[in-house]
Amino acid sequence: MQSVKTGDVTGALLGMLWSLIVAITVAVAMSFATGDGFRPGLIGLLIAGLVCGGTATRLGSGWMTVALAVVLVAVLTAIGLPVIVSETTMLPLVVMILLAGLSLGLGMAKIMGGMPSGALTRHQFEAAIIRFLTGFGYVFFTAIVIIPFYVMVMTSLKSQQALLQNPLDFSLDLSRGWDLFRSYYELMTQYNFGSYLWTSFYVSVLTVFITLAFSIPGAYAVARLRFRGRSTFSRSVLLIYMVPMIVLALPIYIGFSMLGLRNTLFGIVLIYPVTTIPVALYMLQGYFRGLPAEVEEAGLMDGLSRLAVIWKITLPLSLPALASVSLYVFMIAWNEFLLAFMLLDDPSKFTLTRGIASLNSSEIPRQHLMAGAVIATVPIMALFLGLERFMTRGLTAGSVKG
Amino acid sequence: MIAFRPRGARASAFLGTALALCLAPAAMAQDMRFWTTEEQPERLARQEQLAADFEEATGIAVEVIPVTESELGTRATAAYAAGDLPDVIYHTLQYALPWAEAGLLDSDAATEVVEDLGMDTFAPGALDMAAYEGGIASVPVDGWTQMILYRKDLFEEHDLEPPTTYAAVTAAVEALNNPPEMYGFVAATKVDDNFMSQVLEHVFLANGVSPVGPDGFQELDVEKTTEVLEFYKTIADASPPGDLFWKQSREVYFAGDAAMIIWSPFILDELAGLRDSAPPTINDDPTSSDLASKTGIVTNFAGPSNPDGAAWAEMNMFGITADADIDNAIDFVKFSMSEGYMNTLAIAPEGKFPIRAGTEEEPTKYADGWAQLDVGVDRKAPLGDLYSADMIDEIVGGLDVAQRWGVEDGQLGLASKMVNTQVVNRYVREYIDGAISAEDAVAKMNDELSKVQ
Amino acid sequence: MSSAPSVPSRPTDAGQAQAVPPRGRGPLARREARLAWQLLLPTLMAVSLVVILPLLAIFWISFKPVTLADLRPPAPVLRESLRGEGDEMRVEYRLRNSSRDQLITGVTLTDTLPDSLSLRGEPEAPCVVEGRDITCEFGDIEGGFRSTVAIPVTGSGDPDVLEEDAEGSEPGITGSAPNILTNFDFTLENFARIFNGSEFWGVLGVTLFYTFFGTAGALIVGLFAAMLLDRSFKGQGILRGLYLFPYVAPVIAVAFTWVTLFDPFSGSANALLLRMGVTHQAINFFGEKPLALVMVTLFEVWRYFPLSFLFILARMQSIDTDMYEAADMDGASPFQKFRYLSMPQLLGILSVLFLLRFIWTFNKFDDIFLLTGGNAGTRVLTVNVYEQAFAVSNIGAGAAVAVVIFACLVMFSVFFFRVMSREEGL
């Protein structure tokens, strides 16, 4: 074990692992970008990793390591032991060599930077491992998040035929110009997606308002007022939050069928808030508890009634929380699929998710389905990125002390 | 106990007054609703046109609602339970009798339509299939026969018999199967898809196996069914991996990677490169009719225990529902079967052979008109320009001799219910996956099918 | 009624130690409680209407042999038409029973003859005409009953107008039939059916596998992601936002994307694996047992690790840093710090998260439904509810499965609240 803990050996071992990760990542990225075949070459990547990692500690600066890595990858490719085996043209090949070399070199420089080439202390050894894992983590997470969304967007811009011929080829044929967006155009014109968007939007907004109207007073009562059964109540709210939707969907379906509310948007707007009220209640009560009670008490002293205190003091103070809850509820309503799927039949009443579900059938080309997915995803992503602070808070509100 | 009514109603009223204002329906209320399973945009457009013509003629506005075929059964039952059925449903034969028996369809109204238009203007075989309680369950509109498409060029190259029998197909699979460049067959393996039911029924019929007899359920013959299962396993093993239904089978065949597939005549236009959303990808020209010229077809298929073989037909019908505004619905169906009939058939003439050949005055009016109709979506051409006359005769001729489980025994309704449960699909799939033996598969099918009422 | 158990939401006696109001409630306290209940009333009503009531309904239905079509009670169906001309002219009523097996009792038809038509001879039995009022007493009609009665009439003028007149007055029809939903015959058939098949235990096994590994996987991956971002650097906010995408995007969009990506024919994942020489045959990721189950579990991990990661990160950032500084003084290595300082701090949130996510994953329906439709050995209990109720149209059996789910859920919840009251973290 001790022999491992020298800078050279650790560097070499981590170098090989890192080289493997780099090779796979670059191969996949290049395949997705060009549609040509790339695959990791085992011998080449092991040699490159070994040499680069093993010498990283001895090369004074990080830049030396990077330069060495690039040269290594290029030389190995030239002598027929490539780090990445490829069947492609010159330009992608050069890009690939640069990418692989840079990532390998930068990674090793970061991992082994400032380490001695001799024996490592426990701290140094663990730090190297942690840096390696961190690098791996960034690559891994970014890949698993980005690839599906990349495929979604790119598929929506390709023709069915091109997709079938080479499922890997996501390079866009820019000469098609506006024709790239044909799927979107058809969805909007032939498939009524404009109206689905609008329906989804106002259903979600109405859901937010109704949810707030119900949950603010409720949450306040649970957070601030003393009454018998308070703790029971706050627990049962959580319990309701845990009842599976499908279990409720069945009787709701039956009931709506009998009341004639099935296949109406009115029914949908009636039912969505109920699925979100428990969540909103739970989130808001956590926030209200955290507000300083003194301010409200001062208001009560001044002769304001409880309701006036809520209206004039509590709500303005909790605007950020309200924003978070609203966003979260909006997201739930916007993404809701099961109820819309079970309750809506007529295309004139579809929400966006229901509309996409209807694209997953018969003869409709795959790119339309993906274009629909993009249309549903983009607004919520835009909201999310624009208001990330509130969103993140909304997701964790009332769930963690402090 | 389910006190939905009073309390629910009050509460929804209480909740909803404010909302009702915002939620006034955006679309204009229509006089009647029409469900159709033909949901491709271009086909929908045809039906919208039909609806518009009808509105012009009668002033009755029709909302055309596309319903995915695989969901049709569930949706219809659900809408029936909710008292919310559309006025008319364009559906396949398998639903006609079960729905009529369950009270979803108004068979009196359908009978009235056929009587008004003239019984003798309809193909008698089609009316037999739709027969129900002295009338008909639903109005037959058009039909097609299932075909085995095969690569004539490869068959000739390898000196193979056309795939008209189990034995011929098996021989061809052995000779041609070379995945992933060339799959011997693309069988249907997606259990919950209608396509698998259709293909399997055809393969069962070919060997003379049926789950119904004159008195209802009839045990599947172990020996004959085992032949069917083994044959199906042969072609499934020569198929690509995955849950296959019509889509993949067409894609693989169009890419030039399959020797045989089973399909409906609907494939004939895209096979000739007339449709951009489903182009042949065998070469770089999506409009090429090259593949069409290399393709042969077989409609009558025979197994070892049934040398005569069988063809399998599908029929589409207009069902008038129990919730319909009867008069409007009758008018609409009559219109679609006369003035609008050409428009109905023109949705996809290659897969919609007229069941009503003409009117009392002009007995061949529609049959003649159909023959002139252009097929194709992005490019148009009459079928006669694309395929040889004997091939077209083979396709259309199949309709006269085609079979379905239970038609001869008057048990079509029960057989349809059995098909709709997808029991056969499930156990065939388990068998070809190697999860159960052939005897077990037959025993399980018999056990489950005997429970169908 | 006795057979429908009530929903257990009894409080456990633990956790009552917080803010107990003083004994002997003064007028102020009473007023406060009254106000509280007033504020809670709308929520309570809404929730009970749409949660409690459906739950009771589910219990009720699970003991009844109900199929989807039974939701529509049998009813007499009537059609009126004016037929024939001159001496043949008659108003025809066609009556049928919408059900094929249920009896409808006390069926009576009433209608009014329009002024433009007059009676010509005797109406067919059982119809009686008095003045302009037509009454037909059919009595009880069996399932599958059909009959046509004619009332001979004469009228002059345009036949179309006459037809309009005749069919203009809506005939009234009354009759009553038993409604299977509200009568009192109960049966254990549904439960017998679901526990009988070997299928059920398979479904339960699949559910537990999916739930356990989906939850544990999402937690571990989430923990890893949280450790990655538990530091300040440029772009940390962007990455944090990016890693939340899978959770924020609509499930239908990402599920179909996965299906597209892993399609055996036109999927990029297969093309990539083939190109890289990892496999020589396209793999059918979502269509083969047992791979499909692994795939849906992976999807679950992918989709929900952001949630775990958020909660864990929030907890990490609230850990006191003094501790670490003290540990640094003592010369603890990074791994030791994590093992002896961070982990104990995180255990609470991890256990709570695990339970919560376990329950939610157990309840998940959309994901599997969209990815595989419950085929290829991925049918979990929730999908089974849908299958039974809608694919097989047996609402009773679906409800029975739903009751089983609910029973499991109550079990988990009791456990959860035990842990919760120990773990004041959430």
Quick synopsis:
The complex is a heterotrimer of chains A (402), B (453) and C (426). Chain A is mainly alpha-helical. Helix content of chain A is 74%, strand content 2%.
Tell me what you see in this structure.
The complex is a heterotrimer of chains A (402), B (453) and C (426). Chain A has 402 residues and is mainly α. Chain A is 74% helix and 2% strand. A two-stranded antiparallel ribbon of chain A has the order 1-2. Residues 398-402 of chain A have low confidence and may be disordered. Chain B has 453 residues and is an alpha+beta fold. Chain B has 2 domains: 11-143 and 313-387, D-Maltodextrin-Binding Protein, domain 2 (3-Layer(aba) Sandwich); 147-311 and 401-449, Periplasmic binding protein-like II (D-Maltodextrin-Binding Protein, domain 2, 3-Layer(aba) Sandwich), CATH 3.40.190.10. In chain B, 48% of the residues lie in helices and 14% in strands. Chain B is built from 21 helices and 17 strands. In chain B, helix 2 links the parallel strand 1 (32-36) and strand 2. Chain B is globular, with a radius of gyration of 23 Å. The model of chain B is unreliable at 1-28 (pLDDT under 50). Chain C folds into 2 domains: 75-176, Immunoglobulin-like; 190-425, MetI-like (MetI-like fold, Orthogonal Bundle), CATH 1.10.3720. Chain C has 426 residues and is of the alpha+beta class. In chain C, the strands form 2 sheets. A 4-stranded antiparallel beta sheet of chain C has the order 1-2-7-4. A 4-stranded antiparallel beta sheet of chain C has the order 5-6-3-8, with no helix packed on it. In chain C, helix 1 packs antiparallel against helix 13 and helix 3 (189-196) packs across helix 13 (395-422). The chains are: A mainly alpha (402), B alpha+beta (453), C alpha+beta (426). The interface between A and C is large, with 105 and 102 residues.
Key terms:
heterotrimer; B: 453 residues; D-Maltodextrin-Binding Protein, domain 2; 2 domains; 6-stranded mixed β-sheet; 3-stranded antiparallel β-sheet; 17 strands; 48% helix; C: 426 residues; alpha+beta; Immunoglobulin-like; MetI-like fold; 4-stranded antiparallel β-sheet; 13% strand; elongated; disordered N terminus
